[in-house]
Predict the structure of non-specific serine/threonine protein kinase.
Amino acid sequence: MTAAGDLIAERYRVGRPLVAGRLGHIWLGTDERSGREVVLKRSDLPDTLTPRERDVVRVWMPREARAFARIRHPNVIRTLDVLLDGDASWIVMEYVPSRSLLDVVREDGALPPGRVAEIGLDLLAALTAAWEADVLHLDVKPSNVLIADDGRVVLTDFGPAGTRAGVAAMAEAGIIFGTPHYVAPERLFGGASDERSDLWSLGATLYHLVEGRPPYHQPAAGEDGPDPPYLAGPLTPVLLGLLRRNPAERMTAAQVRSRLRRTAPSARRATALRAAAAVAVAAAVVAVGGSAFDAERGVPSSAAAPSPAASPSASLPSGYGWWTDPGAFRVAAPNGWRPTRTDDGLTLTAPGGRPTLTVMRWNATGPLVPALVTAEQQARLPGYRRIHIVPATDPPGAVWEYTFQDPVTGPMRALRQIVTLGDRSYQLDWRAPAAGWASALPTLLTVLATLGPDPAD
């Protein structure tokens, strides 16, 4: 039995367990020579194998692992070492802080077609790199795809055999490894395995991501084709083209790549248009004059200067009042929200306690995305899950969005945005109940449009 603290090959220290499965166990470990974290996978022989089958797998498994180690691509997990230990072989891989796509779908729901197209392009690039190294994956499925904390898509956990010779040897011995719903039909019925088998599994994986379930929810449906996709939209032709039982009729990698590229740019354009529309709505709200009250000075808003973050002609949004952190910034807040000054800036709280918005100067130097990743590593939030940490262009800066569990309020969603205006940067931290996120977001957009330097500074 392997336990935490064990030393493998006098080099790799076993840490906490990560995954336990039919074909082995995976631990987080440490390379004692370099000090870096690694993943340690012990590949076991299934108890169901006959003595002859065990001999075949025992011979080929380490050879195949060394073949996987030849693949060098940012979307493929890197194999660092292969070790033998009796009936088991150890594979040492890079450690990628991440969530599997299976966990993403389980916890966050089905993904939009545009995002699935982007993931599909990364997976296709990973598979192409493997094929160029004369290796098949043969176990592409959501649990074997990682979304790294830095956003990278990583294909991991190649099957026990991937080279053509290894696959042929195991097939001759009657050994077929794979996962129901994701294994290509020709592999189940004695046909040859090639790149088209990986393309089938890619299609089954993309189907699961966009529909929220495997393509064959009812096993009997496999006779005629996958269950009809309902959420895939522009991805539907790709899914149906990949999930064809006859490999000769299946879409090629080039056809899939072309379709996915068209879907991904279309989704990006649609997202950009929605964002522009949201900004336009916020700007329109800012531009509307009214009899709002300046909550800080106790005078009508007409006595306040225009927001430096908006155009010179913009006025205070109706129903909002100016709040200023002297020498730092000024921002409009909804009337009725409670302000609390802190050493770092200003916190505004809605009636009832949620949402809250904290605004402060951002004085850190260096790239913004790594700075937010560092802040994330220092955060201690119960039930924390990252949505993304990405650069932003309008306004310039960076955004960190995540969910967590508040012990009183329950599920929460938060957005931390670094905004650069001229030679100054500001940090906004917005937190709202997850159930009311969409309805509260327009308030954030309105406030963001009014943020600017203290006009008296």
Observations:
- The two ends are 67 Å apart (CA to CA).
- The chain has ten helices and 21 strands.
